[in-house]
Amino acid sequence: MNQSPEKPLEDLSSPTHTPIASLLICEKSGRWAERLETSLLDRVFECSHSRSLAQCEDQLRQRPHSFMVLEVTSLNLDGAVHCLAQWSRRFPNAPKAVVGDRSMQPAEALIREAGAIHTAFSPRNCTPLSKLIARHLENFAAPPRSLQEEFFARIR
């Protein structure tokens, strides 16, 4: 078998299809990521975590069809709403959900106006958000492997 120099034999065993969408969680506390990942255990989705709005935007640029979960706090509300409005225009194929503690509930109308499709103010009830995430990401499952990719994946 003749291999081109760009793709040596050992590279064929690695997956060549990078998902175009993943779950992007932007939060500082970590409690939402833990709950969401627990509620999505039976699903196989790539999940990325970030702690800053700039990192979130970088991740959205790399995967513009991702589902974003953004945590708002009293400290980041203004910046988060501003970014959410911008991202809703620049990344219309990436649904955005906003999470926060109960003290953020009065800002829900502002958050939704900025582009959030869902809000949650208690990590105890992640089921509706998990269903939205799963439904969106299932639409962007990795494409089927070629016969050659399937062969090398099975012999590993």
Secondary-structure blueprint:
Layout: E1 23-26, H1 31-39, E2 47-50, H2 53-62, E3 67-71, H3 77-90, E4 96-99, H4 108-114, E5 118-120, H5 127-138, H6 147-155
Parallel strand pairs: 1-2, 1-3, 3-4, 4-5
How would you describe what is shown here?
- This protein is an alpha/beta fold and 156 residues long.
- It has a domain at 48-138: Rossmann fold, CATH 3.40.50.
- The chain is 39% helix and 13% strand.
- It is built from 6 helices and 5 strands.
- The protein has helices at 31-39, 53-62, 77-90, 108-114, 127-138, 147-155; strands at 23-26, 47-50, 67-71, 96-99, 118-120.
- Strands 2-1-3-4-5 form a 5-stranded parallel beta sheet, with helices on both faces.
- Helix 3 links the parallel strand 3 and strand 4 (96-99).
- The longest helix is centred in the middle third of the chain and has 14 residues, at 77-90.
- Residues 1-17 have low confidence and may be disordered.
What keywords describe this structure?
disordered N terminus; Rossmann fold; 156 residues; 5 strands; globular; alpha/beta
CATH superfamily of the domain at 48-138: Response regulator
CATH architecture of the domain at 48-138: 3-Layer(aba) Sandwich
Number of strands: 5
Estimate percent helicity: 25-40%
CA radius of gyration: 18 Å
- Structural class, please? alpha/beta
> If strands are numbered along the chain, what order do they take across the biggest sheet?
2-1-3-4-5
Topology-level CATH name of the domain at 48-138: Rossmann fold
C-alpha termini separation: 19 Å
β-sheet strand percentage: 5-15%
Number of helices: 6
Please give the largest β-sheet.
5 strands, parallel
Catalogue the unreliable spans: 1-17
Give the averaged pLDDT, no decimals: 82
CATH class of the domain at 48-138: Alpha Beta
- Silhouette: globular
One letter per element, helices H and strands E, the order comes to EHEHEHEHEHH
